[in-house]
Specification:
By secondary structure, the chain is of the alpha/beta class. The chain has eight helices and seven strands, in the order βαβαβαβαβαβαααβ. The chain has a seven-stranded parallel beta sheet, sandwiched between helices. Helix 1 links the parallel strand 1 and strand 2. The protein is globular and about 60 Å long. The relative contact order is 0.15. GO terms for molecular function: 3-oxoacyl-[acyl-carrier-protein] reductase (NADPH) activity. Its EC number is 1.1.1.100. Pfam families: adh_short_C2.
Amino acid sequence: MDLGIAGKWALVCAASKGLGRGCAQALVNEGVNVVINARGADALKDTARQFKVMAAMWAAAAPGRVAPQVIAVAADITTEEGRAAVLNAEGGPGRNFDILVNNAGGPPPGDFRDWDREAWVKALDANMLTPIALIQTVIDGMAERGFGRIVNITSSSVKAPIDILGLSNGARSGLTGFVAGVARSSIAAQGVTINSILPGKFDTDRIAGTIAATAQKTGKSEADVRAAQQKQIPAGRYGTAEEFGAICAFLCSQQAAYITGQNILPDGGAYPGTY
């Protein structure tokens, strides 16, 4: 299926690895120009190099195609300086992004009794306030041009809270509530959609961190924790970043124009509820 977004410009945050990388890769493979951002310069540079190879392959696959651009900006997107660096990237679209994929590493797991105000503020900055700031920056331009796709990568904990991820539960739920209202405002009739993807257990560095925390808390080995988790997933395994990226790319497509304000839950069937 041609998603109809070749030539568009996308900003993908935390795109050097994991789910953010999966999303950016899927967009590049649809011919989308991407500005990828992460704090780690080395990993981001390596990702950009691989994406440029993919972009060239996409262009070579059919006559008349032009390879999408890949621009890497190593910066802390949770700061004003970091956001300015992304928006002022040489060769980029400035504020005129057609697609925004909000993503940030989740705050550390732990016991809520140990979290002070600074820990909460940091979690809110990364997982709620920064996505809102980026939405504010790009949404009016999207509406004026009649096309916009905003995808927030949150967590399945928004729907089914995880006890050791209280910082994430709170911050991401706040973003979800904000998006629920904005997605149904006047921008819905101007071709702009906002949706969130709530990943369950995907095979990323993040899951490795939560496995380690659970192992330490329970006294079990990490291998046993991993096996037990996968056994509880009806699909019998963790998801992959490529699978996640495909979902993101579809939500960014022309075909997904009638989907907005939704929370998509890819979790291999782990959530037991009907709704």
